[in-house]
Design brief:
This protein has about 450 residues and is α/β, with parallel strands linked by helices. It is built from 15 helices and 13 strands. The chain has a 7-stranded parallel β-sheet, with helices on both faces. The chain has a 6-stranded parallel β-sheet with strand order 2-1-3-4-5-6, sandwiched between helices.
Length: about 450
Amino acid sequence: MSDWYRDFANSGVGTTLVKQLGLPRPAVLRRYTPGQPLLDGPALVGSAGEGRLRAEIEAVLRDDGVTVLSPATADGGSGPKVAAVVLDATGLTTPADLASAHDFLAPAVKRLGTNGRVVVLGEVPGEAPSPALAAARQALDGLVRSLAKELRAGATANLVYVPSGAEAAVPGPLRFFLSGRSAYVDGQTVTLSAVDAPSGDGGTTPLAGKVAVVTGAARGIGASIADVLGRDGAHVVAVDIPAAGQALAAVANRVGGTALQLDITAPDAAQRLVEHLVQRHGGADVVVHNAGITRDKLLVNMDSARWNSVLAVNLQAQLDLTPALLDAEGALKPGARVVAVSSQSGIAGNRGQTNYSASKAGVIGMVRAWAPAFAERGATINAVAPGFIVTEMTAKMPFGTREVGARLNSLQQGGLPVDVAEAIAWLAQPASAGVNGQVLRVCGQNLLGA
């Protein structure tokens, strides 16, 4: 979907005009296409203190054909442009050590090119043995979120916390945050778990041989999720209500998958889904809880039907389907990935959406509570929380409301359904085994909310 303002601001006349008027100039984001290199240029890698991950970081980059530069080549920020800046900050011991992070990042960021990436890796604050050490580690969160708001030209900054023993889980998240898959993920923090994870990226089909279920797949974000999972090699079981049967069949045919007409709020929905997966596909490797509805109204004017229907589809259905899949023999394959779609509204709230925001906040609580049980099975469960995503629904919003909503983020533009799909596809990969119980916002670092 075209962004008229972004396109105008990047045109010949538009570039001059927005500069003269002091208006923002949103960048055309670098999004992933199969076969695309991890980065379009070199990466500058440095450490704050005696970091333990630098060798791992450089090995991942070199394996992907990226030229690795050291701080010695930074030239005070005057050297050639770089595509990424990566800081190993696992060596921080006191807040005073944060000065070394500044000393590396300040000149390095000056060299960052269009659609550049900043990735910082640190130790988990909650595992620190002293308040001073916890403060130094937590400070990285504020540093990265603020830096993300300072970057321009489509650049992003994100933080990965890596506990001791989780080194094998680093390559997957590092590649994601550096790649075009994370084009609309900015100012975010992910904490890894200590697990064994495949070292490779899986090439252009990291989900080859996998069976992936996507609810609400007939249109919008759900259809885009099906497209991306299918592109990455999965056989997609596209699920939606019978009334959407024609559109659902079109999506399934397009991705070479299977259509299953199912009302996920029906009393027998869990049984029907389990039977279909076990009998037709030998179980599922990936389950994406995407189906959702809105029935907006101010709380004081909201009737019970609006409240109950939203909670039933957006939250209760996930609470019913997930344990059924966990308990049924063969329904979820070893190393399964479950991804639930939450929302920025579930984090920051939204006027007129108490029902929707409650349901999406509930999804976050569900994911965090189930993570330990999934870990015991060698599986993962995570959530993505989209912000302002340009869809047919947002196209119907009043012009002013739509434009304000699209620009209130660090990237100064609305996201696309494919941005949400790419984040989900990454969480579905075998290389994401160390990401569990996490909530990843796909919002361009929305300026409202946490």
